[in-house]
């Protein structure tokens, strides 16, 4: 019941914009704070709204494989939007980006061919190639059919593959103001 009460007090995006005296979000960006379990939506440099978020099942800041269930840290962009995703809707990030791929190549986690696959995908402003050890299925997603249960938990339950999960209602709000190319920073 505690989780339901907390969620009833959440301010809709429209009201948050009015409180900040903003009529339209310009130059949207997202900052994810893993330590505080939040996803923050900005208009230029103004924090418009903070959302509760959960992450990958395992802690750690360096994602070494598609099956390690770690949410990576770094600077990314939204590279694809899927409105028919298993967990409701998903904003795919360009993980692994060149920094991730370079680090993985340097540490012999991926091969030079895999690095070139990632690099080629990114050079065409596409999502990274998923055909590497690192994978490429990281993004900001809804919860799906269990939304009512998970969004109302009175505690944090990290359950994703490394993606950032927010409620279905909140992913709809984000989709109304972000687009492909929106910058996303994920901090520890």
Shape: globular
Overall pLDDT level: 92
Record field, number of beta strands? 8
State the major sheet: 8 strands, mixed
Q: Please state the CA-atom Rg, rounded to the nearest Å.
A: 17 Å
The CATH superfamily title: L,D-transpeptidase catalytic domain-like
- Helix content estimate: 25-40%
Name of the level-1 CATH class: Mainly Beta
Task: Sum up the structure in keywords.
8-stranded mixed beta sheet, 25% strand, 188 residues, alpha+beta, globular, 25% helix, L,D-transpeptidase catalytic domain-like, 6 helices
How would you describe what is shown here?
- With 188 residues, this protein is α+β, with helices and mostly antiparallel strands.
- The chain has one domain (2-95, 138-187): L,D-transpeptidase catalytic domain-like.
- It is built from six helices and eight strands.
- The chain has helices spanning 2-8, 13-19, 98-106, 112-123, 147-150, 168-175, and strands spanning 28-33, 38-43, 46-52, 74-85, 88-93, 139-141, 164-165, 183-187.
- Strands 3-2-1-8-4-5-6-7 form an eight-stranded mixed beta sheet.
- Strand 2 (38-43) and strand 3 (46-52) form a beta hairpin.
- Mean pLDDT is 92; it is low at 1-7.
Please provide a brief summary of the model.
With 188 residues, the protein is an alpha+beta fold. The chain is built from six helices and eight strands; from the N terminus they run H-H-E-E-E-E-E-H-H-E-H-E-H-E.
Question: What is the topology?
Answer:
Layout (H helix, E strand, L loop, with lengths): L1 H7 L4 H7 L8 E6 L4 E6 L2 E7 L21 E12 L2 E6 L4 H9 L5 H12 L15 E3 L5 H4 L13 E2 L2 H8 L7 E5 L1
Parallel strand pairs: 1-8, 6-7
Antiparallel strand pairs: 1-2, 2-3, 4-5, 4-8, 5-6
């Amino acid at each position: 019941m505690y989780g339901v009460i907390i969620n009833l007090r959440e301010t809709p995006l429209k009201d948050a914009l009015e409180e900040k005296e903003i009529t339209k979000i310009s130059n949207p960006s997202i900052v994810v704070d893993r330590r505080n379990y939040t996803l923050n939506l900005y208009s230029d440099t103004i924090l418009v709204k903070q959302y509760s978020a959960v992450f990958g099942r395992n802690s750690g800041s360096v994602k070494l494989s598609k099956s390690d269930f770690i949410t990576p840290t770094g600077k990314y962009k939204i590279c694809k939007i899927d409105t028919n995703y298993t967990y409701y809707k998903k904003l795919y990030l360009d993980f692994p980006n060149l920094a991730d791929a370079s680090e993985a190549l340097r540490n012999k986690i991926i091969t030079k061919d895999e690095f070139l696959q990632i690099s080629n995908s990114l050079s065409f402003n596409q999502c990274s190639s998923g055909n590497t050890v690192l994978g490429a299925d990281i993004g900001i997603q809804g919860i799906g059919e269990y939304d009512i249960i998970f969004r109302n938990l009175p505690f944090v339950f990290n359950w994703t593959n490394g993606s950032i999960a927010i409620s279905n209602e909140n992913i709809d709000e984000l989709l109304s103001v972000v687009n492909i190319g929106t910058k996303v920073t994920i901090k520890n």
